[in-house]
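Suppose you are handed a protein chain with no further information: no name, no annotation, nothing but its sequence. What can you learn? This example shows the usual starting point.
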Amino acid sequence: MITVQQILEHKGHQVWTIDADASVLDAIGEMATHDIGALVVMEGADVVGLISERQYARGVALLGRSSRDTRVRDIMRTDIPRVALGTDSDACIALITEYRTRHLPVMTDRELVGLISIGDLVAAIIREQQITIDDLTRYIATG
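A reasonable first move is to predict its three-dimensional structure. Written in structure tokens, the prediction is:
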């Protein structure tokens, strides 16, 4: 079973964050700049939430609010699960399904060390399955 640590070794540990008091316009700008769909929301060194394009659409655009005047803290999602480096892919998928989220912050104690998405998980599972297929193919060919 593949672990979060193995996924991060493949994709990297880069995490884009934003302060809870930043404007939603700034958050959307950061997401566009980095071509990502979500930012981890911080207060100092503490992870306090997640803001995604979904929160923007539902918390600003659909309500006719101004993204310039709305703070990230006003629309961020706070009920996000966090995972550790040793968490396996099955547990991550279960959390993503249960919480209906697409991103999981990776923590060591209280420190943010990465972010994995459902896309990262799918890619890792596909890589793991391909290794198994290749191993079985070699076994049959030499058998």
